[in-house]
Design brief:
The protein is built from 7 helices and 16 strands. By secondary structure, it is an alpha/beta fold. Strands 7-6-5-10-11-12 form a 6-stranded mixed sheet, sandwiched between helices. Helix 2 packs antiparallel against helix 3 (about 135-145), helix 2 (about 95-110) runs parallel beside helix 7 (about 255-265) and helix 4 (about 170-180) runs parallel beside helix 5.
Length: about 300
């Protein structure tokens, strides 16, 4: 059993230990080069979602070359798989109760019979609280079991105490994408509730981002932070921006309840474009993709590329 298998097995049984492990070889590329699918949202100048556009309103560019669109549709009917990843480290203690309520309501409103969701908590360890299920009751029960970690203060020589903690954010993203999402079909989302501050992950930020691309997952981040703790909104902006999601600043946007509502609205106003790339090489090299609206006043929110199938 290699290191990656050991790490994956620990997630499956509930936790990841703190011992650093070597990174296994790159996993098999999952995107079929013959047909590239891109899910995206469109906003107007005021930031409102635009849901009445057609194929003729867009062009697709891959690595600077125009592509012919073969399929275009509203994406609300495709199966949906959601991974909710909740940071339970000490810095998030004050928001866990609100997260329970907001997430449970979100799942009740969004999930349909053909949809799936799972729940992972992460701090110094990872725990698969609820595996893939379409049951809203099981997800709500899982959320009710989520407990935050009380901050533990450790006095230093300086005047301000520091807090002993560990937050394995990038491990959580990598394993959610690799273990739970890569073999699913339809729309795939990772929803992160965290302050973005990673401490102790085995996987690096670029490795977590690549695995999200390989599994075709869109990352949405709910950024919450307390002034006394460290935070890294920039890390969340890269994870979300590169995969076609975005960051919701919970404080500025009126709280988690409103953020969950906004995410729900966005998911109901998405499009899907499919095309066969003119570059048919299966070299595993990242391809840049741009969905361009004919109306320059509109802004497209989409993943920035994909990895074609390797030989």
């Amino acid at each position: 059993m290699n290191d990656h298998d050991k790490l994956s097995r620990r997630l499956a049984i509930g936790a990841i230990a703190g011992t650093p492990l070597a990174l296994a070889q790159d996993p098999v590329i999952r995107v079929d080069v013959r047909l590239v699918n891109v899910t995206f949202s469109v906003r107007n100048k005021q930031g409102g979602l635009v849901g009445n556009l057609t194929k003729d309103d867009f062009s697709v560019i891959e690595d600077g070359k125009p592509q012919e669109i073969s399929r275009f549709n509203r994406d609300t009917d495709l199966p949906l798989t959601i991974g909710l990843l909740v940071d339970i480290s000490g810095s998030m203690y004050n928001v866990i109760e609100t997260a329970r309520r907001g997430a449970s309501e979100f799942f009740r409103k969004v999930l349909r019979e053909k949809d799936l969701a799972f729940l992972i908590t992460f701090g110094s360890e990872l725990e698969l609280v609820q595996d893939l299920t379409s049951s809203k009751n099981l997800l709500e029960r899982g959320m009710s079991e989520v407990r935050g970690t009380r901050p533990t203060r450790v006095m230093t020589q300086g005047p301000i105490p520091t807090v002993a903690r560990g937050t394995r954010l990038f491990d959580a993203v990598y394993l959610a994408a690799d273990e739970k999402l890569k073999n699913e079909t339809g729309r795939k989302l990772i929803v992160l509730l965290t302050d973005g501050d990673d401490q102790g992950s085995v996987y690096k930020p670029a490795e977590a981002l690549k695995q999200a691309h390989l599994s075709d997952a869109v990352i949405y981040s709910f950024f919450y932070h307390e002034p006394m703790f460290g935070s890294d909104e920039g890390a969340l902006k890269r994870l979300s921006g590169d995969t076609g999601g975005r960051v919701f600043d919970v404080a500025r946007r009126g709280g988690l309840d409103q953020a969950f509502t906004q995410l729900q609205e966005e998911m109901r106003s998405q499009y899907s474009i499919a095309y066969t790339p003119t570059n048919d090489k299966k070299d595993g090299v990242f391809r840049r993709v741009e969905i361009k609206p004919k109306d320059s006043s509109l802004k497209v929110q989409a993943r920035r590329g994909y990895y074609p199938s390797g030989a």
